[in-house]
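Lecture notes, unit on protein representations.

Consider one protein chain, 272 amino acids long.
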Amino acid sequence: MTPLEIPTDLDATLVLVRHGESEAIVERRFQGRLETPLSATGRRQAALIARRLARPLDPPALPLPVGSPLAIVHSPLGRAAETAAAIRDAAAAPGAFATSIPLRSDERFLEIGQGDWEGVPADEITARHGELLARWRRTPTLAWAPGGERLAEVRERVAPGIADLLAELQAAGRPGSIQAPQVAGYRDGDLDQPWTVLVGHDGVFKVLLLTLFDLPLERFWMWTSDLCGITVLEIRAGRPVIRAMNLTEHLTGLLDDEAQAASDERARSGAL
C-alpha cells in the first residue's frame, strides 16, 4: 500500500480515546463489530475521561493545544458512540470549553471484524480454534478469524479515514504557521493549532498508528490502548510524534484493588 501522505505544512494534534468497558468485555466474549453497550464501570470510565479532556490544564496537564477540539469523531458502534457523547457533553459544561463540539460517526473506524468469533466466549474460541488464535497472536497478517477481516483490509479503510481527518485539521489551521520542521517538545509561542478527538477501538488504533508511522502490519501487537486510555499524537511540520501514550491516570480510584486488577486484565485483552 502507498504510504500515507501527511501535508508538510500541517501542525495539529489528534487525540485517540478507546471506548469504556462494554458488557461483552465483562463477559469475556469476542467483540469485533458486535453491538454491546457500556457496562456500569464503562459508563463511569467514560464520565472520568470526559471530565479529564474537558479540563486538560488540571495537573498534570495534558499536552493539548489551547481551545476546544475541532470535532469528536467516533466509530459507529454503541460503546464508542456512548463514550464520545460523554466527552461532548462534558466539554459543553460550564468551567470546561462551554461550547458545543461537533460529534459524528465514521464507519471507517469500526473495530476489526472478527467474523464467526464475534459474541463467542474467549474460552470457547481457545478450545475450538486454539491453533488459529495462536497464529493470529503470533503472525497477525497471516491468520484471522473465520469470516473476519484481514489486517490489510482494515488498513485499506482506515488510511483514507486518517487522511480525511488530517485534511480537515489542515483546512482549520493557521496559514503559514510553520516555516520549517520543529523539534518535538520545543514550541514557539502558544500552541493554538487545531485538534480532533477520535473515539474508537484497540484493534483499529493499532492499525492507525502503524499506518501513520509507516510501519508494517506485522508489528500489529506493539501498541496497546487500554479502556478509556488517552493517546496524544502531535503532527509537527508534517511529522507525527507521540506526545502521550495510553494515559489512564484519570481512572485511578475508580474501583477497589481487586476489581481494578480484573478490569486491567480485561483492558489489556484488546482487539477481541
